[in-house]
Amino acid sequence: MAPEMLGWCIFDPMGGARPIAWSEIQAFSSAAGLDLEPWEAQQLRAMSADYVSGLHLGSDPFVVSPAYEDCPEKDPGIKYERQLINDTLKAGFAALKSAS
What we know:
The chain has 3 helices and 2 strands. The chain is mainly α. A hairpin with a 5-residue loop joins strand 1 and strand 2.
């Protein structure tokens, strides 16, 4: 039975991610009975590499999500972080004010 799909990337046992290897793309193509054109294999590899890049970007809470690069002010993660910082500063200043 042929594999039903090719994953987004390869995860190693330590939790790291890397793009799908060319050999994996070739093996999938062969096992699935596909005759991928060179540009199709290149596109699969490029999409996998971009996915891994996005994973790394997404792990930093202070980086704008790739989905919001053109309009970072709409990124819900950035809004949340800004609100969290604002609330923390307000609480800190309120504590200082009440202590004096």
